[in-house]
Structure formats: C-alpha cells, structure tokens
Amino acid sequence: TGVQTCALPIWGIVIAEPSANELFIAEKGVLWVEITTFGRTSHGSAPQLGINAIGKMLDLLADLRHFRPSDDQHPLLGEATASLNVLNGGFKTNVVPDRCTAIFDIRTVPGRPHQDIITALKTELELAHTADKDFRAELKVVKDLPSVSTAEGDNLVRSAQATGRELWNREPKVGGISGYTDAAVLMPGTNIPFLIF
User: Fold this and answer.
1) Spatial distance between the Cα atoms of 37 and 101, rounded to a whole number of angstroms
2) pTM for the full predicted model
C-alpha cells in the first residue's frame, strides 16, 4: 500500500496553544474557590444592630493570608499558588452588608489532591466560627481541573524533539506552563500522552 509503519507506535494528543516552538508537557491544575460570609443588615447609622459580612470576611482573609495549597514542588511547574482575585460585598453606603464574596484562583502541582485543599479551607471556616459565633460562611468550588503531565521520555515527546532537530536543527526545550488547557479535561484517567505545541 505504500504506507510505512514505525517500530514504535507514536500516539497522543497535541494541544494547539502558543508555545514559542518549545514543547510543554506539564500544566498546573486549577481550583477556583468561592467563599461567602454572611451577616445581618442594619442601617448604617446603627451598625451595632447588624453583623457586617465584610468585616467577617476581612477577619477570615487575615487568617488565610499565609494559606498554602501544598508544599509540593514540581521540576517543570514549580509550586502551587493561591491568589484572591475577586472581592465583592455591600450594596449601599448606609446599609450594613449581609454578604461578602471572595473568589480565589488556586493553581496546583501534582501531589496534594484538590479535595485535601478544599478540606483545609473548610477547616479554616470552622475555626473562624469556633472563635466567633457570629461568623457564618460557605465554600463553593467554581472550577476543579487537575494538574497533568507527560513523561519526558515518552515516544510522543521524543518524536517531537526529533522533528524539531530535523526542521530547525535544534531540539525544542521541554517545559511546563502555569495555565491550563484542554489537556486538563482530555487527559485525566486516560494515560494518553500529550504535549502543548
């Protein structure tokens, strides 16, 4: 038939994202967590009659300022990070707010399961309630995608490096990215190798 076969079958998924002609074989996981604190409204002229949800959130954020998603390190991805990126509370200057919401963008590396991170955050909420009986909060997971990677010695990666040598007379560097791609949806549970190129 004229079709040549390769001694080592090469299969996998190529994620077509910008890579500056390098090979990315690992990406951080993403865990977006929304925490809402609750209070009780009152008129701004009588704040002692209400419970200020923003104040409760500020107390919680002070407790969370040193929160680390994990202590794991990855050779291509570095360490996990957590960033408070949305904070929203109150609706009128003369009303004590009864709700405040914070959304965290947590980027993870292989090691600590996301469920363990969620449990650790829920424990922080329980501790805050123990210290302050007026503290009420809920936690909601907005997005949950794992960190994924392909072994550097995989046939797909070696083939891509060989192709780079053939086309550009250099071997593309292997690295990882702190963002996430479709690989986080396509890879878990399949053991299919992937690379981002």
Assistant:
1) 6
2) 0.89
Q: Is the dihedral of CA 87, 34, 116, 82 positive or negative?
A: negative
Longest CA pairwise span in the chain (Å): 86
Euclidean distance between CA atoms 60 and 105, whole angstroms: 17
Beta strands in the chain (DSSP E): 13-15, 23-27, 29-38, 73-74, 78-79, 81-89, 99-108, 136-145, 148-149, 174-177, 194-196
Per-residue burial over 11-33, b = 16 or more CB atoms within 10 Å of its CB, e = otherwise = ebbebeeebeeebbbbbbbbbbb
Would you write out the chain's pLDDT as a tens digit for each of its 197 residues?
Answer: 444 445 556 789 999 999 999 999 999 999 999 999 999 999 999 999 999 999 999 999 999 998 999 999 999 999 999 999 999 999 999 999 999 999 999 999 999 999 999 999 999 999 999 999 999 999 999 999 999 999 999 999 999 999 999 999 999 999 999 999 999 999 888 889 999 99
